[in-house]
């Protein structure tokens, strides 16, 4: 049987009176990359925010490692091993690269040790080692994205949610980031839930796809089942 880490059932979420997620069902399997695609404004970011309790669930459930988590606060979810890399990265511009990474470690508390130590992080993203003392705000978009992933990694996640990590970054860095994410899933068993609009990036790393439309899942399938040309057409309509 597949080892499902995260699952939603009949998930509804709204901003005030405006319902955005309308009974959404999906699953993310352990150690796999699950990608949610869909046109602008269909609710992809809202879904990740709802998983993190930044938007409240109005109906339905979210289950993480067999436990219902839809009513838990964000910090608790972070402590349970759910890492979130939001759109726009949200690194602290006035702190150095090292200090930004340290913030991720501090989230663990003094007793725990990062399972992925700093050395390993620097091996994944060598540029962060070179720029350890540089201010976060002085990094390029791609370097900031790498830093945001590094910061989440030192907090020992079992699951990482990423919101359009390739937005506004050059293709060669996007490819490097894709390779790191793929390795984290395949070698460390970390589950990746990715929101992405760029099909060429998604194709590089995805095991299973979902396509969202107006707050519902419209289509799903494994990388072998889906015809990516059809998807391309659908996304560009
Ligand atoms: N804070 C908010 N308050 C009210 N409505 C919002 C808020 N944030 C987003 N929305 C609306 O919710 C809908 C879904 O937005 P969301 O950002 O989740 O879509 P998305 O699929 O991630 O799109 P994009 O790719 O453009 O980020 C949109 O109609 C958007 O205008």
Q: Can you characterise this structure?
A:
Belongs to the ABC transporter superfamily. Keywords: Amino-acid transport, ATP-binding, Nucleotide-binding, Transport. There is one protein chain. By secondary structure, the chain is an alpha/beta fold. The protein has a domain of 165 residues: P-loop containing nucleotide triphosphate hydrolases (Rossmann fold). The chain is built from nine helices and ten strands. The strands form two sheets. The chain has a six-stranded mixed beta sheet with strand order 6-7-8-3-9-10, with helices on both faces. A four-stranded antiparallel beta sheet has the order 2-1-4-5, covered by helices on one side. Helix 7 links the parallel strand 7 and strand 8. Helix 3 packs parallel to helix 6 and helix 7 packs parallel to helix 8. The model has no long low-confidence stretch (mean pLDDT 91). The structure holds adenosine-5'-triphosphate. The site of adenosine-5'-triphosphate (ATP) has 11 residues, from strand 2 and helix 1.
């Amino acid at each position: 049987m597949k080892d499902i880490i995260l699952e939603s059932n009949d998930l509804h979420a709204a901003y005030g009176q405006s319902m955005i997620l309308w009974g959404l069902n999906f699953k993310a399997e352990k150690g796999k990359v699950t990608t949610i695609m869909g046109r602008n404004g269909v609710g992809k970011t809202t879904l990740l925010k709802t998983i993190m309790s930044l938007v409240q669930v109005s109906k339905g459930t979210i289950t993480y490692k067999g436990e219902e988590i839809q009513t838990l606060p964000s910090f608790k979810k972070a402590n349970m091993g759910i890492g979130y890399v939001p759109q726009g990265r949200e690194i602290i511009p006035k702190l150095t690269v090292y200090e930004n990474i340290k913030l991720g470690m501090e989230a663990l508390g003094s007793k725990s040790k990062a399972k992925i130590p700093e050395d390993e992080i620097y091996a994944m993203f060598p540029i962060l080692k070179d720029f350890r003392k540089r201010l976060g705000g002085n990094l390029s978009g791609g370097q900031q994205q790498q830093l945001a992933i590094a910061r989440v990694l030192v907090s020992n996640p079992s699951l990482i949610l990423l919101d359009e990590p390739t937005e506004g970054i050059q293709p060669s860095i996007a490819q490097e980031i894709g390779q790191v994410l793929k390795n984290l899933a395949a070698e460390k068993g970390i589950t990746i839930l990715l929101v992405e609009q760029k099909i060429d990036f998604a194709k590089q790393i995805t095991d299973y796809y979902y396509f969202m439309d107006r707050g519902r899942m419209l289509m799903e399938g494994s990388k072998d089942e889906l015809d990516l040309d059809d998807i391309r057409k659908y996304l560009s309509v």
